[in-house]
TrEMBL record:
Keywords: FAD, Flavoprotein, Oxidoreductase. Pfam families: FAD_binding_6 (PF00970), NAD_binding_1 (PF00175). Belongs to the flavoprotein pyridine nucleotide cytochrome reductase family. GO terms for molecular function: oxidoreductase activity. It comes from the Eukaryota. FAD binds at residues 123-125, 142, 149-150, 191. GO terms for cellular component: mitochondrion. Its cofactor is FAD. Gene3D superfamilies: Nucleotide-binding domain of ferredoxin-NADP reductase (FNR) module, Translation factors. SUPFAM superfamilies: Ferredoxin reductase-like, C-terminal NADP-linked domain, Riboflavin synthase domain-like. Residues 70-174 form the FAD-binding FR-type domain. This is FAD-binding FR-type domain-containing protein.
Length: 347
């Protein structure tokens, strides 16, 4: 997850167009070669422009028809709270009369595109609690040092207008499709899982299986804020048979160590041991079986692995994305556990 897939492609196409224009003034001997390249480049750029799946380019802004993926809706930033270094919880509201009708539209997991008005670039963000009847959406956002949209969004003040379009389906939840679900997240990759867990454990779901969340951050101070952790801990407390969660950090903060957080945190990356340990079958099948066997008991069970986080993490756990950020084959740790492509989804 957490990569601006369509925009990278769109910007690439824009880059092609720009390069084509800047090569026009050149010397005569080079002109023929340049013309050929220019024609080729321009054709590629034009083709890319029309074929790439980015409908934001022409998406208008409308303030009098319901929120939809096909246009931007102006929303107000109604609250903004710094919750840790470089992260904020934002609440964004659209007028309630602009909420689209349709009960399935806002079933998990969905996101909205937020547009950086200054540079006309959009990125997807996940409303933590979905949207309420007053049109409020709450986001946990992280500012990346060189990030275009995240820095812009982080700098917004209460009262500012932010344009959004959506809802866009990230992945479709079904109550009865799986016996066991393992959610693996890194950084802000926890946001879609929070949205899902909140629905499942707030009495709106008839799910009877088990869910385990394995989350990792670089240090304890970069773990999700209490606004996210506390409800998750409560879900686990109230549903011990159905929901477990485990947190990992690459290293402990220099000054505070483990004591900087109110939850139990394990040092190290999420890997084969932790994933095997999370499987419910681990109580019946020795954990070491997964370490040595390509074909564990995973492939013939109704187990689903959802993975969401920085690209390197997704790759290590579930294999790289395919071309144009399609799912690609199952790789990494999950492949070595014998998982097939129906059991793994990279968000
Ligand atoms: C479906 C979906 C839902 C998302 N939901 C959320 C959400 O709720 N909250 C949230 O904060 N983000 C979320 N994201 C990520 C978000 O869309 C942006 O990718 C992120 O804010 C960075 O955008 P940017 O324009 O600032 O960075 P860019 O300009 O695209 O990237 C600049 C640099 O920032 C760094 N960078 C960017 N993203 C990451 C990353 N994920 N991990 C490590 N380094 C990175 C890289 O070094 C990169 O070179 C979601 C992504 C997806 C696909």
């Amino acid at each position: 997850m957490l990569k601006p897939r369509f925009q990278v492609l769109a910007r690439h196409a824009a880059g092609l167009r720009t390069r084509g224009l800047t090569t026009i003034n050149t010397s005569r001997p080079l002109r023929k070669v340049v013309t050929t390249l220019l024609l080729g480049g321009t054709s590629a750029a034009v083709a890319a422009y029309f074929l790439l799946p980015d409908i934001s380019r022409g998406a208008p802004t409308c303030d009098n028809i319901p929120l939809s993926p096909s246009h931007f809706t102006p929303a107000k930033l109604t609250s903004s709270t710094i919750v840790s270094s470089g992260t904020k919880i934002l609440t964004v509201a659209i007028p309630p009369e602009l909420l689209p009708k349709g009960s399935d539209l806002f079933s998990p997991i969905w996101s909205v595109f937020i547009k950086d008005d200054d540079i006309q670039v959009e990125r997807p963000y996940t409303p933590l609690d979905g949207v309420d009847e007053d049109g409020n959406m709450r986001f946990w956002i992280k500012r990346y040092q060189h990030g275009e949209v995240s820095r812009w969004l982080y700098s917004k003040q209460v009262g500012d207008t932010i344009e959004i379009r959506g809802p866009l389906r990230t992945w479709s939840w079904k109550d009865d499709a799986w016996d066991e679900i393992i959610l693996i997240s890194g950084g802000t990759g926890i946001t879609p899982f929070y949205q899902l867990l909140r629905t499942v454990f707030s009495g709106k779901s008839s799910f009877q299986g088990r869910i385990t969340l394995l989350h990792s951050s670089r240090t304890p101070s970069e773990l999700p804020p209490r606004d996210i952790l506390d409800p998750l801990l409560k879900f686990a407390q109230h549903n011990p048979e159905k929901f477990r969660l485990k947190f990992f950090v690459d290293s402990f903060d220099e000054t505070n160590g483990q004591s900087s957080t109110h939850i139990e945190v394990h040092k190290g990356r999420i890997g084969k041991n932790s994933i095997c340990g999370a499987l419910h079958s681990a109580s019946r099948v020795p954990w070491w079986r997964g370490l040595f066997s390509q074909d564990s008991d995973v492939s013939d069970r109704k187990i689903l692995f959802l993975v969401c986080g920085p690209e390197q993490m997704v790759e290590a756990i579930a294999g790289p994305y395919g071309r144009n950020y399609s799912q690609g084959p199952v790789g990494g740790v999950l492949r070595s556990l014998g998982c097939n492509s129906r059991q793994v989804w990279k968000l």
